[in-house]
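ok trying again, last paste got cut off:
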Amino acid sequence: MNDDASTILLVEDDGATRTFLADNLSADGYDILVADCASIGLSLLERKFPDIALVDVGLPDGSGLDLLRRVRSADGVASRVNPDMPLMVISGRATELDRVRGFDRGADDYVCKPFSYPELRGRVAALLRRSDRRTARGRLRAGPLEVDPPSREVTLHGDRVALSQKEFALLRTLVSDPSRVFTKEELLRTIWGYRSIGSTRTLDSHACRLRHKLGAHGDRFVINVWGVGYRLVDAPTAGAAAVTQLRLTA
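nice, full thing came through this time. structure:
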C-alpha cells in the first residue's frame, strides 16, 4: 500500500460494480477496501479507518443508509468510527426522494447508477480535498502535545505516543478544553457509557496510565482535581502552555 494514498472503502454487493470500481480507483492511486454487506463495511470502518466510504443503498443485510446513520451518530470520542468522514452513496435508486433520504442520513454526495467513472472519480477527489481541510483544522494542541482526532494520532514534542482506545478517548475529551475540570461522572458517562459512578476505579486507572505516558519528558498533564474529576493542564499555566486549536491552511 502507498502510505501517501487515500484509502477508499467500497460497500457494494454487486460483484461487477465492486470489481470495476476497485480496479479503476486502485489504478488511479487509491488504496481500496471492499465489503459486500453492511456488517463487513462497519467492521472495516472500525478497524481500518478509511478516508472515505462509497456505499450502496441496497445491501443484503440491510440498508446502506443505516450504515451512514451509524457513522454520523458515532460520538467521535470513544467510538473508533470517525463521524466526520466523507460518505458517498452510489445507488440505482435515483428518485428525488431517494436522494433526499440519502442526504438526510448523512451523505456528502449521492451518485446514481449508471454513472460516469471520470465524474465519480472527480467527486471522490473533491470530497477528500474538503476532508483534508477539516482534518487540519480539527487538530488540537496543548503546548508540545498534539492530538489529531480523525487519525487518532498523538504526538508529544514531535514523538508519537501510543495510547489505548480508552486512553485516547480520555485525552481527546480533556484536550478539547484543557483547563476545564471534567467531572468523573461526565467522563464515565461519555467515554465508558456508565449511568452511575458507583465504586469503579476504571477512570482513575486510565488517567494514571495516561499521565505516565505523557510524562516521559517531565511534562505534567492530566491533573487530578480531588473529589471532582480531571483536567489536562493546571489552569494558571494554560496560557503559558499555549493551548490552541490548530488552524492550518490546506
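cool. The chain has two domains: 7-138, 140-245. Residues 140-245 form a domain with the Arc Repressor Mutant, subunit A fold (CATH 1.10.10.10).
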